[in-house]
């Protein structure tokens, strides 16, 4: 019931449209009943060869109901689907706004295919919620009350039988259908999610699967997921077939009982014989209002399952707490980290321990250390992807938690690992950093990252398509495009995570020569494993097992002969061996 009430809550802004659509639906079925009833009266009355004047009202009625039925059906479909599309638009916006604060921390346990299935397929499933699950019961209620009042004029017994048949078809059959489709509906939703995940894994990992000769195994997993989806869907179809058969049986049984009661009434003169034909056809037509309710029960169940999956994600608490009264972010960006200790949720092992450093406006800091020592975690905390402990990160002597994360990210830009490129052109990927960047600024950024010559030789230059997530270009080119995009953003602070990791030595040298001009006046936190070009940095922080074990300049750290010096020596020897082998 909680899921249902939450779904119905989304209809509140469109309540007047829902009421209008329901009334139009009831009027459409009433026109169908009126058309069959007046047609039956006209045919039965004509058999008695009356004057044409006696048939004028019935003739006009047939024309009226025939035309109005088509017009009302069109208006009902137009109104109901317009309402439905507005509902879907609201659901999409709501779901995006719900998951945006959760990213990335609260979505790390979600398979991308499953999340995509929730955002697209589950919301599309709710397309049936209003048109086929909410409106039909309301329409059936109005029509049943109207039929009961009309037939009750001739006989309360007839009215009772007709209402009883409608109630059985409109309540008992849908309840049975709901019961039978409950498990298949849930299984189908899960199967669709698994199928989407399996397909996404196959498509995105196809090169590696082919390389390791595992493509057939992955394809078999897709086939198995597809079979489970088809089986669940088939069970839903069987349930629908059973409900249709029961509705047909109830319709004919109700008609038979109506005739058994009405024929003696005609024989005794209590009911005009012409009305016998009318009662017969309006009985059949009346079931048009309740027959869709069995299907509505199926769609209700699938809508409940889809909504449950959406609410399961949307109800997750946000990791980041928004301040009640956000402070304006100062222009003088002096960042301080004091005694920062951090552990991931459900873990007792601190990733960072008592981290302390200052980064004044315009300073350049390098953060180095072995893999897994907490460098990327520190960047995530500075970006507010995870919530920071109180009084540990300060901005101009104010707790970082006092600032809006969105406003803070307008002043802090990062190039993280792995770099992500959108399936778009080179220009569109660059403009993500600054939508208002001029052509000159785009080329300057490409020049800084040593990609201007490469871009000039592309088929369409800046308008060249980069392929699915940039797969048409190399890893080093992807990384430099992401770096250029970061440089285009007019931010006070740049957080650069392994910006030269995929580059050859010559390209790295050129990039390091050109970068300082683009970084002038900006604060930079440079995270790297490669100890190249760090001579120009104001301070180098050496992180090991979550603790800053050394700090200083490149020269002073080499003189200390500590971890930094050992890492530098190892890398220099490896580079010398590589150059020797290549020569």
Task: Name the features.
alpha/beta, Rossmann fold, 6-stranded mixed β-sheet, 10 strands, elongated
If you had to describe this structure to a student in words, what would you say it looks like?
By secondary structure, the chain is of the alpha/beta class. Among the domains are: 2-154 and 271-314, no CATH class; 421-490, Rossmann fold (3-Layer(aba) Sandwich), CATH 3.40.50.300. The protein contains 19 helices and ten strands. The protein has a six-stranded mixed β-sheet with strand order 6-7-8-3-9-10, sandwiched between helices. A four-stranded antiparallel β-sheet has the order 2-1-4-5, covered by helices on one side. A hairpin with a 2-residue loop joins strand 9 and strand 10 (547-552). The protein is elongated and about 120 Å long. The model has no long low-confidence stretch (mean pLDDT 84).
